[in-house]
Amino acid sequence: MPNGIPLYRLAGNGKGVVRFDILLRGGYAVQDKPLQAMFVNRMLREGAEGMDAEKISRKLDYYGAWIDMYSSQGCNHITLYTMSKHFLPLLEVLEAMVKRPLFPQENLDTVRRNNKSHFLVNSRKVDILSQRYFENSLWGDNHPMGHIVEAEDYDSITRDDLISYHARFYNSGNCTLFLTGDAGTEIVDAVTNAFGSDSWGRGEGVEAIDVPAPDTDYSLRKVDVDDSMQSAVKIGFMSLESSHPDFFKFRFLSVLLGGYFGSRLMSNVREENGYTYHIAAELDAYGKRNAFMISSECDSQYVDPLIKEVYNEIDRLVNEPIPEEEVELVRNYILGELTREYEGQFAKAEVFINAMLSGEEFESVNDYLQVVRNITAAELEEVARNYLKRDRMIEIIAGRF
Fold first, then answer.
1. Within a 10 A sphere around the Cβ of 135, how many other Cβ atoms?
2. What's the CA gap between 375 and 367, in Å, rounded?
């Protein structure tokens, strides 16, 4: 657009709906204190120039619209979903929220109190605790991504923290826009007038978010939750970066191991042994870095045998040939999932946005498709031998001991 903000547009399919994404580089990898990025984004809807929180809420409700806000490792993300015919009046609201938020103290006190209460409730849930400690081990105590949030972190957030973070990262030099759906010339022109004509914001553009390298703690950690009914288990490691030539092959391998209902882990741990209702292997994206993680919950008496069978399945991948018919089964499953994942313009927008946040080119979607169609059992066996190292695994158990 005229002020340099890139605007990506994915045409609609005649259903009269629009998705508008505003991405601002920043996120919680570069915040000055814990929770700062999250609170800035959350507080945008609590008041802006000429509008209090009630007026913003009423306007969204009146038009049947929804605004979603979240912060990730390197990005603050705001998404508006609405009917095309209602986009223009809602764009005025969104522009004020992003450019001229008020961060009222009374609302901050309420939001802070509610979020702290929610945090304390979640702190008794073994699956959430295991995730917190897994990320701490993944990144290290001194890394901005590895901090284990405490209740006191909610108390320490101030209005000045929000103002300073907003001033640093919410500006036209730091922004990327995605417009998806039935957005004609009138909507494109309105977006250009609102966000793309002149420079806005006080800060400067951040070319790239420099996230320090992880300092991973490969060890077993137990988190005691004395009144828990079950224990949560997480096993994994910092995996390949999205740009690595073996990344898509490893992604395929993780599906074979634990990415669908008939996977090896589900067949062994659930179907044959009955240790758990569900177990999964997946890749979690943290910008361009990815974490491989096996997750499950079970009765405390089954924790040790469950972990034993997880490593048995990993050893099988490393040491035994993979049947070609199993590769074909997983190939067909992934192709079916990709068909579902790319169905509809909003889903496609999500894929492209995630690719951009991972530092990939949009064409990487096709690169993964090519790997899925052509990968062989021999290639998967080599990937397993190269990257599934038992001595490079984080193990987290949260539950009653």
1. 22
2. 12
Query: Cα–Cα distances in Å, from 7 out to 2, 23, 263, 338, 400?
Result: 11, 11, 40, 25, 51
pLDDT (0 to 100) of residue 93: 96
In the chain, what are the domain boundaries? 7-196, 220-399
Q: Please answer whether residues 399 and 303 qualify as being in contact, where contact means their C-beta atoms are separated by less than 8 angstroms.
A: yes
Q: Are the beta carbons of 74 and 289 closer than 8 angstroms?
A: no
pLDDT digits (tens, 9 = 90+) for 293-319: 999 999 999 999 999 999 999 999 999
Query: What would the two tokens of residue 21 be?
Result: 């994404």
- Confidence (pTM): 0.92
- Alpha-carbon distance 171 to 108, whole Å? 22
46 — pLDDT class (breaks 50, 70, 90): very high
Q: Are 171 and 132 in contact (CB under 8 A)?
A: no
Nearest-5° Cα angle at 318, 317 to 320: 65
For residue 133, count other CB atoms closer than 10 A to its CB: 22
Beta-sheet strands, E only, within 162-312? 175-181, 220-224, 231-238, 279-286, 289-298
Q: Which residues pair with 75 in a beta bridge?
A: 25
Q: Would you tell me how many other CB atoms lie within 10 Å of the CB of residue 142?
A: 9
Looking up tokens 């490969």 gives: 218
Record: fold of 7-196 = Cytochrome Bc1 Complex; Chain A, domain 1 (3.30.830)
Instruction: Quote the percentage of the chain above a pLDDT of 90.
Output: 82
| Residue recorded with tokens 């609609």 | 12
- Only one residue has tokens 């009955």, namely 274
Alpha helices in 170-232 (DSSP H): 185-191
Q: Which of the 8 DSSP states describes residue 211? A: P
CA dihedral 5, 59, 49, 199 (to 10 degrees): 10
| Model confidence at 211: pLDDT above 80 | no
Q: CATH number of the domain at 220-399, out of 3.40.390.30, 3.40.50.620, 3.30.830.10, 2.40.50.100?
A: 3.30.830.10
Residue listed under structure tokens 């040491």: 319
User: Which token pair is 250?
Assistant: 């490893």
| 176, 5 Cβ separation under 8 angstroms | yes
228-266-235-123 Cα dihedral, nearest 10 degrees: -30
Which of 18, 24, 15, 9 has its CA nearest to residue 357?
Answer: 24
DSSP state of 101: B
